[in-house]
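Two proteins, back to back. First:
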Amino acid sequence: MTFLPEGRIGFRPASKSELQRAMEEKRVCEGVALLCDRERNLIVDLGAMRGVITRAEGGWSPGGDVKDIAVISRVGKEVCFTVRGFAKDVGGDEYALLSRREAMKMCAERYLPNLRPGDVIDARVTRPDSFGAFADIGCGIVGLMPIDAISVSRISHPSERFAAGQDIRAVVSSVEDGRVTLSHRELLGTWEENAARFEAGQTVAGIVRSVERYGVFVELAPNLAGLAEPEGGVSPGDRVSVYIKSVIPEKMKVKLVFIDRLPRVEPPRGFNYPDVTHISRWRYSPPGCAKVIESVFE
């Protein structure tokens, strides 16, 4: 059974009969959390009536401790839940009793144990952090993607590649004690696949990723960077134009010549992912290259 990230689950019960059926089938639903009250209860828009996720039912984690921020941060966003029953408030208005905790626990028990290293799954970025990106892999359960697993081309912060709320594909690196580690670089193409888009004699735009004593690394694609000769006045993140002097597969190198600085623009957020559901082994390096960069999942 597959469990999708919050916001992609899709089923939104719009009547009491649909809510009752979802309760009987123990189906995972979702709706938008309108507010969080003083008792940390989430109020969910269900159309026909309001839904209430009490603080105790607001989340689940392998360690058992769910912080308040995990509940209040759902306000204004989609939230997953199961329907536990119905009740009436002091004014006699009926509302639905919902549980995000139960939906997350179902995902942890029925989906996570079936994941294997190398599986390619849907995910939604929840928070880029300095050491990596957190992503919802199902019903609000979050996996961590270390920064060096995001792409082969090095970045200083995951926000240079991802934005919160962005839908991506990810590779499962490991599953240990209910905690999932993810990777992404294996879905962005090998050195040869990326280098095939460029050839010597072209002038192209790129992004400065690193300034070293011996030269400037310029990213041409998320999984491909080239080296230009030292150039003063440029910094990581700068957008530049470069002339491609040579492409050398046996050394996995692209030699560049700096041409000009360009205005900064918002980086593209979309990726063209391969149509695969599992990767056993992925080799980035071209055949015959002495340096080997690869990922082995099985």
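And the second protein:
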Amino acid sequence: MNKRLSVFLLCLTMLSCVFNLSVRAERLKDIAFVEGVRENQLVGFGLVVGLNGTGDKGNATLQGIANMLSRMGLRVNPKDIKAKNVAAVMVTATLPPFPKPGLKIDAIVSAIGDAKNLQGGTLLLTPLKGPDGKVYAVAQGPVSIGGFQAGGGGTGVQKNHPTVGRVPEGVIIEREVFFDINHMKEIKLILKTPDFTVATNTMRAINTTLRGKYARTEDPSTVILNVPEAYNGRVVELMRFIENIDVRTDTPARVVINERTGTVVIGNNVKISPVAIAHGGLTIEITTTYGVSQPEAFSGGQTVIVPQTEVSAKEQKAHLIQVSGTTLGEVVRALNSMGVTPRDLIAILQALKASGALKAELEIL
């Protein structure tokens, strides 16, 4: 009896493992975010100083230097300034949700003039403004470009992009973006990828966890959560509790193609109906050679260059191959059996979509 019970429990364990492998689940915090809890973009105009002769040569930078010196109490004519060691830059930063004064974040510095290199430069104090025109942070510090540029005499070497750099923790937040989440009565959860199935699964997972009908779906991208009375004034604790809920996710059948790089990405739910494919590559080669036509002595003619062009075309033999698949593994094996290049595979997938055999959305980048 004990032996039969052990075998029964072992079978249940194996079935449970198979079921868990077939169901994909992700944490709620990874597939959705709270409406209003978002990042904000900041931008400002600044000057990078201390460059080794690789700065701007334009008049706009000279005027910026003059304005900066004017704010410091020095009046200088822009025409009298030599700015080879200074570069005008745009400074950008991303303000995180719930920013607090004194918090430090990184800044991106990008040259807007004809500066050659920002290596070794230092960004001067730059106010960073939001879309509303208010200053939310200030940036200052040494610029790190993570590379270099050197050369001379017509030769040179360059690593990474020397006109764009980063100021690590060079931005200090000065203004707080107020958002009172603790006293909200209703929370809108926005799915990062709208989907009817995922929205419904999210609603059911929340209601099951909270043991009540607190969540409802508004559309494929929005799940509205009514804050339970037990969590009034404690929404942060509620979010900490529900953001770790596992939600069953689903992805649409989609094939993504990047023709510029020859990249093909096939989703898990892609299927191909039985179809026969014959694909042959056509190669056309055009070769041009230059010959010299030289006249005979004392004929009065001129020596000219005569181009000679040869055109050849080669077409590979193609055989009909049956292709079908109901799972990702079968689709991959069927397409690999044709032994085609990524460029040919892109053409085949487009033809499969046109014939109706490809049961997936075809997205071309």
